[in-house]
Amino acid sequence: MLNFIKQNFKKIFILLFLLFMLILVSSINYATITINNISDNVFRLHIIANSDSDKDQELKYKVRDSILEYINNSDIDTNKKSDIMLFVQNNKSDLYDIAKKVILENGFDYDVSISIGKFNFPTKTYADISLPAGTYDALRVEIGNANGQNWWCVMFPPLCFIDTTTGIVPEESKELLENNLDYEEYKLISDTSNSELQVKFKIVEFINSLID
Q1: Helix (H, G, I), strand (E, B) or coil at 33
Q2: Which end of the chain is more exposed for a tag (fewer CB within 10 A), N or C?
Q3: Is the pLDDT of residue 89 over 80?
Q4: 8 A C-beta contact, residue 119 and residue 142
């Protein structure tokens, strides 16, 4: 056996290398398709505070509450990502006015930037749903210098009002995700008890960190 290995070392090395490359390419392809499908069905809200001071962080949450209240009380179909994105796009000036009003009412003169685009997000868990790191469509609100800690939630499916103390995502939100993802993708982000799926989740995270 040892003689066989010595005599065929080069061939064995090439075969192992080709096998490694096949696994790597397959993993990259799997991770790319998975994160793209998940991100295509998610719209996030991202708010960045002026600084990390207590007052600026408190202001960030007040801006957040006002924006979410405005969106939550608006007559839009929260069952469709496209409708929520279109509503936000068409009402950017209102969102700016709302944020600016809160800022002024709290004694600050910061400007605020409202933008919609694709932004990088780290892995984030919302109760019993975990979204892998990747690029997602999002509404970004930057207050002042935007040098402080940020806050984010998911506007579609609606995960911004989760009671995290219960650790449970509303069934309606889960159904929206489940209806728009294939079976494994949905289980990947929702089933923490399956060790095989959790390994795949880590693979998706790792590959996407390399790509980014």
Answers
A1: helix
A2: N
A3: yes
A4: no
